[in-house]
Amino acid sequence: MKTYILTSLKLTAVLIIICSMLYPLLIAGIAKTAPGGGKGETIEVNGKVVGYANIGQKFTADKYFWSRPSAVNYNAAGSGGSNKGPSNPDYLKDVQAKIDTFMVHNPGVNKADIPAELVTASGSGLDPDLSPEGALVQVKRVAKTRNISEEKVKQLVESKIEKPLLGMFGPPKVNVLKLNVALDNLK
Fold it and tell me: Which of 51, 95, 142, 174 is most buried, taking the most CB atoms under 10 A from its CB?
């Protein structure tokens, strides 16, 4: 019995050192190699931080590409989904209201062509990215509002498409904040 207790205490001490000291130090070291040094990738304009590349932001002006809706109003301190299922009447009203708003601001777009991500919130409520289709469906509105050719805006969107990690992990995506910053810099 005494040998088991002593062995258990040794094993506990070793696991405490590994799990509470070595592993966190290893992860922190790996994070330092990521963009932003583990603090998140900041987006700057004229030396001023305008946002983080990994946290969604709200864009409602017609001159910008809109982000995916957020169930938490883009509050990173309280991320989460709405927890309403697809048969919930309140949820369906909310989605229909978002579809109606999108259609008013994007005349000429067929309801069937609106990607679901533009009218439904994600699980975190903070998605910073859209699918290429989610950005491309907004090109006409943005080009018209900014008095820029649709082709030029479409080329900008296509240049901002991020390929899947290692060509196979995840879908292609467009970071909305980076796209809108590039749009403001477009001459």
Answer: 142
Maximum Cα–Cα distance across the chain: 82
Token readout for 1 is 């019995």
- pLDDT (tens digit, 9 = 90+) per residue, 107-146? 989 999 999 999 998 878 788 999 999 999 999 999 999 9
Q: Using the structure block, give the residue that is written with the tokens 């859209």.
A: 130
Amino acid at 125: G
CA dist 49 and 39 (Å) reads: 13
Q: What is the pTM of this model?
A: 0.80
| Euclidean distance between CA atoms 33 and 75, whole angstroms | 27
Reduced to 3 states (helix: H, G, I; strand: E, B; else coil), residue 93 is: helix
Element (H, E) at 174: strand 173-175
Q: How far apart are CA 172 and CA 150, in angstroms?
A: 21
Residue 138 is predicted with a pLDDT of 96
Paired sense of beta strands 173-175 and 129-130, if any: antiparallel
Residues (pLDDT < 70) of the chain are 187
SS3 26: helix
Distances (CA, A) of 114 to 79, 105, 109, 124, 137: 25, 12, 7, 21, 7
